[in-house]
Amino acid sequence: MKLSGAEIADAIQAARHTAGNGVVPSGYSIDSRTISPGECFFAIKGPNFDGHQFIPEAVQRGAALVVACAGTPMPAARDWPVLSVDNTLLALQQLAAYARHKWGRPVIGITGSAGKTTTKEIASLLLQARYRVFKTGGNFNNDYGLPLSILSLREEHEVAVLELGMSRSGEIARLSRIAQPDVGVVTNVRPVHLENFKSIQGIALAKRELVETLPAGGVAVLNNDDVHVRKFGRAFPGKVLTFGVDAPATYKASEIHIRGLEGSEFRLDYKSKGHLLRVPLIGAHNISNALPAIAVAHHLGVGFETINENLRSLKPASGRGEILRFQEGFAVLNDSYNSNPAAMDAVIRFAKAISGFQRKLLVVGEMLELGPKAQEFHRDCGRQAAAARIDVIAAVQGLAAEISQLARQAGYPVAVSPFFADSATAGEWLTRQVRCGDFIVVKGSRGVKTEKVIEILRRDHAIKSM
To answer: Given its phi and psi angles, is residue 71 left (phi above 0), alpha (psi -120 to 50 degrees) or beta?
Structure first.
């Protein structure tokens, strides 16, 4: 957003220390290492860092404006363009809220325990058929990333699709007040971040904050298959659109045909009419990820024929259901970006159902942030993988040892149920085991660095050109 220094100062209620009223920053940054010349630098003070220490570096790299906490000493040798505030993070969020209001066009906010990034990507793709779309980049979905995303909006954008993440109660409400969504999507409620919640009901209440902060004329897009989410619209005065596979819904998928690595086909039922659609992402869970995106696009005027055409061009993001085919005749499902019990359930079900391979191998990392029931969740994963008759069940790091242990209790020899302390060791083991006819699932999270397993496979084996 093109905002002058004076406008920024007014928006964040800052004191002007020096010149800078006429400055119009080219962008916004909280990282002195990556700031570009002409950008505004917010000196954020976090639990493990203090951006004020890096103000000289930011200015040396060309910062056009600095927002710092009151009382921060500044060198007197030069005319530093500084705005002084009580709290720089709050100032960043206030400025983002101001910019979003000034921009004034439709915002879709998406949250959920699983699938929200995929839903964001699909919604953005479908809306591009009619609008110039802005979307949250990467994992910019928290107190720091969301404001920076909003401040990247440009005048030519006609609609914004923003992802809202959370790990504690109150975060979604705070992010919603910044983003001011007109349409709120809740994909599901699952047992994640349980170290910060006493129960899944607490997670549900935290996710419901998105619907509670929508305007009275807004639209809530809710998963009718989820026992928690389906209740969110009961007290909402605006419009409610539901989606589902099992339960009746405004947008309902039926006649589902899973096509293995080629994705799936299904009939979308809307107002007593059926529309045949194809999603080239693997697994039935991606139909549930696509449905809310379809609902959003259709609500904003994109027809079903156009939706189907655009769906066919979908490609998974790296580490999120990405299929890699190797010249030696084996295939890998790279799902190494994130993990939780629901997502683990989905990939094991997919691995069980897929045909055409001689062996199925599961490399699974520890699931993090699960609270007191973490051990139980890992043991359930081990039981499920063994029941699915996965040929090799390899576990990585910490509580994932429970997965190997349960597999061995189910009769798996140690050789096909190994446990590794880290992902690099697991990758070095796996690269020596793979052979033609294998289907390998690598499921984990960046906290466990399961992407290292993929890196080692790609180091030692050539990818098949498509």
So the answer is: left
